[in-house]
Amino acid sequence: MFTVFNTALSGLNANSTAIDIVGNNLANLNTTGYKADTVEFQDLMSQQLGTTSAQVGLGVAGAQSVRQFAQGSITQTTGAYDAAIQGNGFFVVHAADGQTLYTRAGDFTLSPTGRLQTATGENVQGWNAVGGVVNPNSTVGDIVVPISGVTPATATANMSATVNLNAGGTVGGTDGTYSAPVQVVDAQGGTHTLTMTFTKSDSNKWDYAITIPDADLKTSSATPLATGTLTFDGTGQLTTPAATDPPVSVSITGLADGAPDMKINWNLFDSGGTGLVTQFTQANGVSATSQDGVAAGQITKVGISNGGLLVATYSNGQSATVGQIALATIENPGSMLAIGNNNLQPTASTSAPAIGASGTSGRGEIVGQSLEGSTVDIATEFTNLLTFQRSYQANSRVITTADQMTQDLIGLIR
Question: Would you say the pTM of this structure is higher than 0.85?
Fold first, then answer.
């Protein structure tokens, strides 16, 4: 008779713990990357009745929570440093005490020193780019974004202009002369506006001269940077120079800002061999100019793109990869302990993590500017809550009944 109290009490304790687990799940309904716990019960050893094979159970062991690593829903966000994992894997983070922890929560931030961190200050692990290239085979470390980084200038090496020269222009007339500006960049990032001047010299012939302002040079010069003659056929297409001839070389020496001398190729034809300078009976005009120089620029924005790449955008319009987030796969993630702040800590029974890049060796894909939601299902949790409540009530009724039977027995003795 007295064992029934312990048996029912074990049921009360187990169901009370189960309700605590359900309550924790519901509390984390909106926690980024949270994985819901399920409840498991185990019976206790039974006692044998006499010499027969009949047994009576002695109750239930304490309820255990088992974390289920199911995929949560992924929602696109506007956070530049948000990331979600689609599939298998964990983000690797370092705590302040040096511990390596794992998380599915990708609501990252950038510290004042440029370190990519979790919302609670753990450093996200990955690889920093060298020259815009990431080596995912190297050792992982803290991801540091060069928030004050500068991309160097690139001097112009090639330029072109899409120009039409009026076939009806007269030699010596105002319509027989046309000037078009082209801006180029030196190695220090300074810009210089070159002027292409076209002068009609004969039927289907135009002379050209390319000049630079005297203020851009240490010593002014009356000599053009380049001169020559363009010849067109009867259909208005450029014939001389020919598409097979080398580009026109434009040399700039003695720049006033101290930048190195420049040698620029003026391309008169596109990659398909079509002339960029034409002669039709239309007004002189330029429709486009291009050059491959780039001014120096500072980082204006950094964001996480798909694959876990951190891409920096510079003020000069250029972009470059500055780092990549690492992913770890663990064969038995359920063996890890939840220690708060969305972090999981390995235990002695946790298998060694395999760290690598997103989308490799069975790892999931990192989705940029997105977050993985909690896997808690509110309908399931409310159903479990009612079930455990009914079970708790039933076990309490067993104790009440056993107590009444005991009182009845005492009454008979008296």
Answer: no
